[in-house]
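Have a close read of this protein, sequence plus structure tokens, and explain what the tokens say about the fold. Thanks in advance:
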Amino acid sequence: MTERDVATDWADRVLTSAHGHYRAAVRYARLQSWLGIPTVLFTTIVGTSVFASLQSRPDPWWQIIVGLLSIAAAVLSALQAFLNYSEKAEKHRVAGACYNSVRRELQQLLAQDREWKCLSDIRRRIDDLARDSPHIPESVLSEMRRHTARIAPSQQGECHAVQPYTGADRE
């Protein structure tokens, strides 16, 4: 295997890693929204209801509903803090950007066909990224495998630009 083959293979691998991290970032951001939006709505309803009930005595069924919403808001808020999806999304976004940086460096190296001595430095950067980056969730990896299976064999293995994940290719 020549240095060019190694650089091409690494470029494909870091592209896949970047894509996986970007997909994971989008997934975690969505999960954060799924927890965050109801939390805000429930706490707003509870706060407004408590303020309104200071002036009159509401029906018992309304008190029960407000109490349940208050409990739901507390549980969702606790889940939000515990699961920390926003931080996970940001870590995956940063990892994806770092992998794309290495990919661009490899593409530049391949385009210039210059001295290959810098490959060992690039390998160390890839190793560091693999060690320091969060794991891509299995559900994202499975989705990527299904997506890759639908790509024509002539397109597999080619370096191409990473498009932001929109979920449009989901089955």
